[in-house]
Amino acid sequence: MVGSEPISNADKASASLFANNLLLRVISAAVLAPLALVVAYIGGFPFALFWGIAALVVLWEWMTLVVGPNYRLLVLSCAAAIAVADFLAWFGRPLTAVFMVGLGALAGAIFAPAERRLWVITGTGYAGGMVLAPVFLRADARFGFAVVLLLFAIVWTTDVLGYFAGRAFGGPKLWPAVSPKKTWSGAIAGTVGAVVVALLVAAQFGSFNRIAIITVALLLSVVAQAGDLFESWVKRQFDAKDSSHIIPGHGGVMDRLDGFWAAAVAGCVVGLLRGGFDEPARGVLNW
Predict the structure, then answer these.
(1) Are 281 and 137 in contact (CB under 8 A)?
(2) How far is CA 248 from CA 23, 24, 50, 204, 227, in A?
(3) Alpha-carbon distance 282 to 216, whole Å?
(4) Do 203 and 285 touch, CB atoms closer than 8 A?
(5) What angle do CA 28, 250, 191 make, to 5 degrees?
(6) Per residue in 92-120, pLDDT tens?
(7) Which residues contact 260 (CB under 8 A, 6 or more apart)?
(8) In the structure, what pLDDT confidence band is assigned to residue 9 with cuts at 50, 70 and 90?
(9) What is the Cα–Cα distance from 227 to 232, expressed in whole angstroms?
(10) Which of 53, 109, 170, 248 sits at a 20 to 30 Å CA gap from 3?
C-alpha cells in the first residue's frame, strides 16, 4: 500500500500532462489548419507567401539547431536565396528557383563551420523543398488545389490516427532509438486511414484510377512517417526535443511540417516525372 501512492500520483500527472498537451495541439491545429486550407484554395501569391514564410522559419530552426544563433550572415544568405526561389517559383521559373536554392546552399556552406557544412547544405535544401514542392504542385491550374488538399488529407490522417492508435494499441516500437513513442500499430493505422481518406478526397474532384490513388496514398503516407522519423533523428544528433517552441503543443514549425515536407517533396517528384513542370499535379492524380 505504501508503494502504490507514488505510482498513482505519477499516473495522474502523466494523464494531466497528456490532456494539457492534447488541448494545446487541438487549439493550434484549429487555427493553422483552416488557414492552410484557405491559402491553398486561393493559390497564387498568398499561397507562395504562406509557404515561403513557413520555409524561412524552418530554415531558422534548422540553422539554430546545427550551428547556433550566432551565424546571422549564414542564415541571412540562405534565407535570401529561399525567398528569391519562392518568388521565382510563383513567377513560373521553376528551374531557376531550384538553381537559386543551390546557390543558397553554397553561400551557407561558405559561412558555415567546416564540421557543419554538410548540415547547412542539407538544411538549405530542406527549407527549399518545403516551399518549392507545394508551390510547384499548386501552380497546376487544373489539379493543383486537389493535390494540395490530397497531401493535407494524407499527412493529417496519418498523423492523427497514428497518434491515437499508437496510444490505444501500443505494441512494438517503430524506431525506438529515434522516436520511442511511435509504434507499428500507429504507423499501420495511419497509413490505412490515409488511403481511405485519399480515396474520398480524390472522388470529389473527378473519377480517377483508384489503384493509382491507393498507390499514391500508400507512398505518401509512408514517406510522411519517414520524414517525421528523419526530423526526430536530426534533433537527436543535437540533443534537442523540439526544433523551437513557436507552436504551442507542437514545438516548432519543422516539428509540425516534417511529414508534410517529405510527402510534398515525394508527391512533387512523382508529379514532375509524370507531368513535367507544366502539369505536376496532373502527374500525381491522373494515371
Answers:
(1) yes
(2) 10, 6, 19, 33, 21
(3) 13
(4) no
(5) 95
(6) 999 999 999 999 999 999 999 999 999 99
(7) 151, 152, 155, 224, 227
(8) low
(9) 9
(10) 170
Which of 156, 157, 68, 159 has its CA nearest to residue 120? 68
Of 199, 231, 232, 215, give the one whose Cα is nearest residue 266. 215
Residues facing residue 183 across a β-bridge: 173
Record the cell numbers describing residue 225, joined without a space.
Answer: 512517417
Residue for cell digits 507512398?
219
Question: To which residue does cell 510534398 refer?
Answer: 264
Rounded-to-integer distance, Cα 69 and Cα 27, Å: 29
**3-state secondary structure string across 83-124:** HHHHHHHHCCCHHHHHHHHHHHHHHHHHHCCHHHHHHHHHHH
| Contact status, residue 243 vs residue 256, Cβ threshold 8 Å | no
Distance (Å, whole) CA 285 – CA 207: 10
Counting every residue written for the chain, the total comes to 287
The three cell numbers locating residue 182: 511511435
| Cell output for 75 | 542564415
Instruction: Kindly report the number of other CB atoms within 10 A of residue 74's CB atom.
Output: 21
Strand partners, 175: 179
Q: What is the pTM of this model?
A: 0.89
